[in-house]
Amino acid sequence: MTKYDSSKYEKPSVTVDLVIFTIQERDLKVLLIRRGIPPFQGKWALPGGFVGIKEPLEAAALRELEEETGVGDVYLEQLYTFGEPKRDPRMRVITVAYYALLPWSEVVGGTDAREARWFSVYDHPKLAFDHDKIVDYALERMRNKIMYVPIAFQLLPEKFTLTELQQVYEVILNSTLDKRNFRKKILASGLLKGTRQTRLEGRHRPAALYTFVPQDLGA
């Protein structure tokens, strides 16, 4: 039997890149870091890093997520694998992209020591590597998925009003929804549970607070 010689094959490197979304002031934000080393030194990029030789992909993604936000227990989904031969000028690098949805209240104070900043997903600087393409792909995936999987609740606090929930949908879809139709559909969906609590919203009468009924987000 011929012995297999693995040295005959080049070995690409593998990274994970994270598209971390949150909502603040009715705007969809994405977390970016400024690169401190070449290539693209000084440019903004998605947080991420190389996968350890014995490290599972999801473990690497969760590690990077916690390093960048201080949060570990969140909705994290594998997005796509990007492997164009020249996407990284250093070497052949294949990246597995993930995206996470975090409530603003949980991440406002949490980033690692590197320079990091939240940018509007609709107005951010040109990114290093092919990270613009990755962000656009993540936004498209989220817009498609929000219509049939209740991922929007990952961007809300535990208790929320129907107005707050509608605002999340509108920010992600970048469009205005009819208030009456939205409330009719969402209340009939079985996704919400009333809390018998209220919250004062401006000068209007107190608004009812709801919680999310857990579902399978991987559908």
Can you give the helix content as a percent range?
A: 10-25%
Largest sheet: 7 strands, mixed
**Terminus-to-terminus distance:** 45 Å
For the residues shown, what is the average pLDDT? 89
CATH architecture descriptor text of the largest domain: Alpha-Beta Complex
What does this entry look like structurally?
It is a single chain. With 219 residues, this protein is of the alpha+beta class. It has two domains: 11-145, Nucleoside Triphosphate Pyrophosphohydrolase (Alpha-Beta Complex), CATH 3.90.79.10; 158-212, Arc Repressor Mutant, subunit A, CATH 1.10.10.10. The protein is 25% helix and 28% strand. The protein has helices spanning 57-69, 104-107, 131-145, 162-173, 179-188, and strands at 13-24, 27-34, 44-45, 48-50, 75-82, 93-101, 116-120, 192-199, 207-212. The strands form two sheets. Strands 1, 2, 3, 4, 5, 6 and 7 form a seven-stranded mixed sheet that branches. Strand 1 (13-24) and strand 2 (27-34) form a beta hairpin. The chain is elongated, with a radius of gyration of 20 Å. The model is unreliable at 109-113 (pLDDT under 50).
